[in-house]
Amino acid sequence: MKHTMNISILLPLCFVFLAVNCVYGDEEKFVTRQEFDKTITTLLKRIDHQQTVINALGKKLEKQSDIGTKTKRHAQTPLIAFSATLQSHQEHLGIHQKVLFDTVITNEGNGYNPHYGAFVAPVSGTYVFSATLLSHAGVSGNFELMKNGTVVYRMYMGGHGGGDYDTAGGSIILKLSQRDDVAIQAMDSVSNGQSVHGDLHSIFSGFLLAEAGEELVVG
User: Fold this and answer.
1) Which of 112, 149, 177, 219 has the fewest CB atoms within 10 Å, i.e. is most exposed?
2) Taking the chain (219 residues) in consecutive chunks of 10 residues, what is each chunk's mean pLDDT?
3) Of the candidates 139, 168, 135, 151, the residue with the CA atom closest to the CA atom of residue 96
4) Which residues face 196 on adjacent strands?
């Protein structure tokens, strides 16, 4: 029977309960078998309800434990992040020449090489990159964010006439294998070469979101 164990436990308690509560005022009240059975049935229903609540809480705890495990695994992602800006102007850049962001602000994991002008992935994983470029006054420019020499997206700065400046930029999420490189380069060549304004106005950044084989957790 489903409630055999519950009844064996509850019977002594019920007898104690009935013995203590059999007197109301100065009058004795004798409980009939029907009333006794009804009391047992009510108690068993309460036990079933409590068991349902306990089961629901158990499932909730298991779910939270699972989320905690995934979050912990995600928290073990290696710290790889960089930000580098231009202190010196980049001028007279030829076609496909890299922009060398010469002032490194952050370089956790040593993935960015300011002399090579590229980020080289220390580990395989999902990365986030962003870039903002400022043109020289009255000078336009075409640049590209590259992955292993292949164009990912392009940026155009239209600093035309009147000494106007212009900015261009973007963000991208990329899956990289170890040793893949990401850089920004001049898209094409013009008579005087492409140029990017320095004085810390132009910046290139990136970071590892999750190492390969690691499950991303949101929320």
Assistant:
1) 219
2) 49 50 48 73 79 83 65 69 92 88 95 95 97 84 93 86 79 97 86 77 94 66
3) 151
4) 90
